[in-house]
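Shipment paperwork, digital attachment
Item: protein structure file
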Amino acid sequence: MTAKINDLESFFRNIQKTIITAFQAEETNGEFIADHWTSHLGQGTSCVLRDGAVYESAGVNFSMVSGDKLPAAASAKRPQFTGMPYQALGVSVVVHPRNPHVPTSHANVRMFMVTDNEGQPHWWLGGGFDLTPIHLYTDDARHFHAVARDAVVPFGDDLYTQFKQDADEYFYMPHREEYRGIGGIIYDDLNEWDIDKSLSFIESVAQGYTQAYAPIVAKRKNQPYTEQERQFQLFRRTRYAEFNLIVDRGTIFGLQSKGRTKSILMSMPPLASWHYDDLEPITAAQKALVKVVSQPQDWL
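Attachment content:
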């Protein structure tokens, strides 16, 4: 079936529902609350779970917006389209678990459409998913990357290697000289296939994300932890916040386009603790984490 623009809203909303269902299945004391919104740019639904037993904060947002001028942050690789009329649809996910042994995770799938000065349409895809552990467990990292590879390999044998490298480069914080977590896959400015294959690719990425992350949540959510491990979690969350506010193009795009601020900043951790001096890693899993964020690893 050839996709039409009018079908894209249902397509992305179904992805949102599927991800929420997968995450809700792991929560024992909390539910996602849907916040339907409209603005001068468009409309969407922000689904947020706060203060759960498993998820201290989790958000799965759908948005469909348009504007007269595409912000520069959304056209870094297509500067010729900056300032042109655009539409953007997508789903973004950020999960901050309560247990410090469960990693933070992030995912997004999105589509941009632009009409050029001659009235010709152009479109491209962006997205991916990544993992930010507080305590590193090698088996979890290998599982996450194996599923990421399996999600994209049907569309090209070299895509995982390419997308992993792009993620490693993207999730770098120059001001800290370290990487945000253990990466994953990220793609941008992707328009290699027709619309049907492109949407199949988006579905595979979204499904891959839940298959990569949900089993780790199930495995670690009841693992005992100490107060020191909790404090180390709050300290490491500050790196996540710094990346989102200083580096992340999605956050910058949302703010540049005067989007809905509370939906954009849903990605921020509910609690974080900055320290003048870094907290020293004590456990083996903490030391392993600090080591790997200084240099990308080959997990496969």
